[in-house]
Write a structure and sequence with these properties.
3-stranded antiparallel β-sheet; 3 domains; Phosphorylase Kinase, domain 1; 297 residues; 15% strand
Length: 297
């Protein structure tokens, strides 16, 4: 008796038929997603018995995309940091397409993981993003496409900055005039992506920080985000460490460079920072006054 396959089964067979042959070591198990120049698959590493992700170039004839994919793999290979996805392997398929193997990232995107988090938890996450980006800048690498969708939060507290495919690397030739995502892209990137420096990433970080703040965020935090995303390059923080330092000072109850507080705000900040000793001193003084008045009567 003839048994017909359902539409879902046929679709799955077609999908499997398109899976790349990445050699004996890696067994493709499912498709994870498709980007601008490559498709990402989940695979089983038969040697180390672990699940990994494999990014494969889509178009064999796209030499520029092949160069980008290899550049991305080499960038990630240079950036050994807990906040940047590690690369395990790279190579060429039998059909000539390039691929690389990286850690399989599980979890939620930053923009989907903020709803249940307090302001302090959000600032913790943002400072960890700053650490990863600052590490890249120390190696001369500018991401150029920072946005919440490119930050992944794992189920055990992992935070990874992803998608370094359009990063600017020292000495590398530039082929595009414009790269980045509208809304997060610094104004100077719209004119010439090759001329930007680390302050373009600071602009994007300012946009991300602004999006992470609650509706009624403290004025100093709003000022920090505004300075980071200033339209003019020279008005921004000089480096990511300056941005992170201002945020840390806010959390410590210290004044921040981006915000000029009034006298009343300064008094309120000092009181909040030293609430207990100030309260004890005030109570002591009040008790002394009461006792003096009592004995005089």
């Amino acid at each position: 008796m003839t048994q017909w396959l359902g539409d879902a089964a046929v679709a799955h067979l077609r999908d499997v038929a398109d899976w790349p042959d990445v050699g004996e070591r890696y067994e493709i198990t499912r498709r994870l997603g498709r980007g601008g120049m490559g498709t990402v698959y989940a695979a089983q590493d038969r040697v180390l018995h672990r699940e990994v992700a494999v990014k494969v170039l889509d178009d064999l004839g796209a030499q520029a995309d092949a160069a980008h994919l290899l550049a991305e793999a080499r960038i990630l290979g240079r950036l050994e940091h807990p906040g940047i996805v590690p690369v395990h392997d790279a190579g060429t398929l039998a059909d000539g397409r390039v691929f690389y193997v990286m850690k399989l990232v599980r979890g939620d995107r930053l923009d989907a993981a903020l709803a249940s988090r307090t302001l302090n938890e959000r600032l913790d996450l943002f400072l960890r993003i700053c650490e990863a980006v600052s590490f890249a800048h120390a190696h001369g690498i500018v991401h150029r496409d920072l946005k919440p969708q490119n930050v992944m939060l794992g189920p055990f507290g992992e935070l990874l900055v992803l998608d370094w495919g359009v990063a600017k690397v020292p000495g590398a030739a530039e082929v595009e005039a414009v790269v980045g995502t509208p809304g997060y892209m610094a104004p100077e990137q719209a004119h010439d992506a090759g001329s930007v420096d680390a302050r373009a990433d600071i602009y994007a970080l300012g946009v991300i920080l602004e999006a992470m703040l609650p509706a009624l965020a403290p004025k100093p935090l709003i000022a920090i985000a505004k300075r980071a995303r200033a339209p003019l390059v020279e008005q921004r923080y000089g480096d990511v460490r300056g941005l992170a330092r201002d945020l840390s000072r806010f959390r410590e109850g210290a004044p921040v460079d981006a915000y000029h507080e009034s006298l009343l705000e300064r008094i309120g900040r000092v009181y909040s920072r030293h609430r207990l000793p100030i309260t004890l001193v005030l109570v002591y003084m009040i008790v002394r006054v009461i006792l003096l008045l009592w004995f005089r009567t």
